[in-house]
User: What shape does this take?
Amino acid sequence: MPSVYIKTYGCQMNERDSEAVAAQLVSKGYTLAKSETTADVVLLNTCSVRDMAEQKALNKMENLIGAARKKRPNVIFGFMGCMAQSRGKQLVDQLPDLDLVIGTQKFHRAAEYLDELLAGKRDKIVDVEEEKGSEATIREHLLSGAKASKAVSAFVSIMQGCNQYCTFCIVPYTRGEERSRTIEDVVVECQQLVAGGVKEITLLGQIVTSYGKRDIKVKDGKSAFVQLIEAVHEINGLERIRFTSPHPKGYGDDLVEAFGRLPKLCESAHLPLQSGSDRLLKLMHRGYTRERFITIIKQLRQSQPKIAVTTDIIVGFPGETEADFEETMSLCREVQFDNAYIFKYSQRKDTPAAEMPDQIPQELIEDRHLRLLTAVNEIAATRYDAFIGKTTEILVEGPSKKNPARMTGRTRCNRIVLFDGNSRHSGQLMDVKIERTGSFTLYGDPAILNLD
Assistant: This one.
């Protein structure tokens, strides 16, 4: 059977989709190639959140096609995901040698379409149409072979789409409206994963805290999302639960309280801020104020004192003044985030922000990005240093990617820990004493591990 290579750009949802497509293809008899240079099929799973991500994927595909057509003219090339959804047939017009374009609601069609292309039944396939029920069509995980034996954590997609329509974001247009799976369906998938050795599950959605709002009624004061967390929490053998990506509006009292009540729900909360300026938050259509955002974090820390709080921030949004930027800087100093992902504003076609006046010059965006990044990193370093000398629980994920001689694990508050160990520790929950820190990394004391 043919071999396939999948390269992924963008978010954890894209990673999960790529894994599912890969597992689906393997189940149909395909093999996974180690490199795009040897594969019979090359698929790029794309991101549209920023222009840079799209350009990387386009340039990569152009180079791959150019190199392969000379020596391996029968290779199938395809785009999947968000850029595929937003551009559709334009991609084939731009790259005539492209064979396949699959939108965000068509991942489960990948094997079917590849079979047709490889058999010569169709010349090119572009499918970016909506498909009812697509949120529950593809569940496959790579739980067979070598990778399976090392899988201790897994992503589970609980919903697709977004109804927020933030003025800077293209996701509602590439992922469609919110569509949620049933609680029962998600729980069954999680049970199967745990039976296969998974100990940590991350619940995924574009706006994961909006799960089930249309279909599942509030029960005993608990939203559909908290009901789902509770149901997953009951699975025997599961040790940890995480979720991403949420919206600050989704942190109601029931979810805040859950962090202090449910022991399997990890002490790690992500709240995308985007801006500390009320004026910009309104222009962004975020639906909360600076004061409300700070209040949520105070409530979370009161409910779970060990919680780590991370965020996303955009610099250079249209019309951002120096005063607006300082509002963001001051909020970061006040809140003391454990980490922040800082993004340079990128104009996205057909989004309201792309047409707003007072677009910020790139050099000013770069300057503000550097200033905020420096401040955030200084704050985060202090919070990491606070772990030195303390003992913390980690879930060992396997050998470090950068240094296979070391093992890597993750704390409940989502910090990476490296330590000197061996493969027998993979999948274990264990305590390590933190002896030093690196760049967003903790280093465990091997003496604590009884490695002898």
